[in-house]
Write a structure and sequence with these properties.
Length: about 450
């Protein structure tokens, strides 16, 4: 079922440039000011150095038009919406959009109840790069721009009281996890798949949280380049994602899958050894290279012939909590290829599915206990010219304020070299930041 709320291209915007003396403080003021709106997307790179980046942070608030739909014909509906508005659009693609173009289903437990896809055309956009802030308002509300900017700069940052500790439950036991990974290894040994990303959920029922405060704590301890705060009325995403799914920059497409994780250490020598061991780890390199091959195949469906290139293979990047192995794959596309077609032919991302993708997704549905929904989907934005940038929704907390249900999931890639106990420990490592925030450690 699809709900459209949009008008024919009334998207001319007023643009104003401001100089910001303290960008870090201003970002906090901006996000706190935004909390009054029903629809919010805040994207923050946390000053992480990147080769492909346009802004340090983006805020989009207050929907003028929107689209919300289940998976049926979702990409066609999004294409119609994007072509009709020809404006900035912000939103997400849930993992379960896989069901639009494969013979797949999503019948596992779901207590979050996010729509399969949601995008909105914001009335108000703030684009920060260094000390330069660009403000873009639809002309219908540009008379509010000056007043809003003054209100933002006058926003006081109040020190929050310590949060109440939240009791988090693990959806499946360690024994059940190990049993299911063993079943997945059986599929691999039989040749049904080479690799699959297997995930498990942590959750809490009847819990009240402050989503904005939770997001700020999560990003403070993680400092990742694709951090996101999302609000659509009573649905919230608080994400410290380190991973880009897909970016379109003119005719260039960029994908940067993560496969391979190692713990950080306070001791510099120990930390450098962990980084080196990750770079040389045969199992981690194997799973990364498998996904690189999958991404190359996905990009080739829309690429100009001979333009798919692996720019970086298995490079190690440092984040505050972990080391990650990341590869960068690019392609060139023709102007005749629609941005939605590029997303459709690559979604869901290989790093969260496996190889071969279709078989892996069927086995994932069989062995996992929770419907993934927005987790392992993608959130981002379209520019008016059709360029886009989307993250991978991982290291993220999801919350439904209607039924007071909170959830986050973690996973790892299972290959023939996997040891179930080690995969479980990797999941515990990835869950650590979310648990620390929610359990107020």
């Amino acid at each position: 079922m699809c709900t459209f709320e949009f008008l024919k291209n009334i998207s001319l915007r007023t643009s104003v440039i401001k100089t910001i003396s303290s960008p870090t403080h201003f970002k906090t003021q901006l996000l706190n000011w935004a909390s009054q709106f029903r629809e919010i997307i805040f994207l923050d790179s946390n000053e992480y150095p990147q080769d492909y980046s346009s802004y340090d942070c983006i805020l989009a608030v207050d929907a003028f038009t929107s689209i919300k739909t289940d998976f049926h014909n979702a990409f066609d509906d999004l294409n119609q919406y994007q072509q009709s508005t020809k404006d900035w659009l912000f939103g997400y693609l849930s993992y379960d959009l896989k069901n639009t173009h494969h013979d797949l289903v999503s019948n596992n437990n779901d207590e979050l109840f996010f729509a399969d896809m949601y995008f909105f055309q914001p009335k108000k956009i703030f684009l920060l790069k260094g000390n330069t802030l660009e403000i873009e308002y639809l002309m219908m509300c540009d008379d509010e721009l000056t007043h809003d900017f003054e209100a933002i700069t006058e926003t006081l940052i109040v020190e929050e009281l310590p949060s109440k500790k939240i009791q988090i439950e693990q959806r499946i036991s360690k024994e059940k996890y190990l049993e299911n990974v063993t079943k997945m290894l059986d599929y691999i040994n039989k040749g049904d798949i080479y690799e699959a990303n297997f995930c498990m959920e942590y959750f809490s029922r009847n819990v009240q949280i402050n989503p904005l405060e939770t997001y700020q704590k999560l990003t403070e301890i993680s400092k990742t380049p694709f951090a996101t705060f999302f609000k659509n009325n009573n649905h919230f995403l608080m994400s410290a994602s380190p991973e880009r799914f897909l970016r379109k920059q003119g005719n260039k497409i960029i994908s940067q899958p993560i496969k391979g994780t190692a713990k950080r250490f306070f001791d510099a020598k120990e930390d450098e050894n962990a980084k080196l061991n990750l770079a040389l780890n045969a199992k981690e390199r194997s799973e990364n290279i498998m996904i690189v091959d999958l991404v190359r195949n996905d990009l080739s469906q829309t690429a100009n012939k001979g333009t798919v290139v692996v720019e970086e293979l298995c490079k190690i990047y440092k984040f505050k909590q972990v080391h990650q192995m990341i590869s960068t794959i690019t392609s060139k596309v023709s102007d005749t290829i629609s941005p939605i077609e590029i997303l459709k032919t690559t979604f869901p991302m290989g790093s969260m599915t496996g190889a071969p993708k279709l078989s892996a997704m069927k086995i994932i549905e069989e062995l996992e206990d929770t419907k993934r929904g927005l987790y392992s989907g993608a959130l981002g934005y379209f520019l008016p010219d059709g360029d886009f940038d989307f993250n991978v929704v991982i290291r993220s907390i999801l919350y439904n304020n209607d039924n007071k249900y909170l959830s986050f999931s973690v996973g790892s890639a299972i290959t023939s070299l996997s040891i179930p106990e080690n995969e479980y420990e990797e999941c515990q490592l990835k869950a650590k930041a979310m648990l620390n925030v929610l359990e107020n450690k």
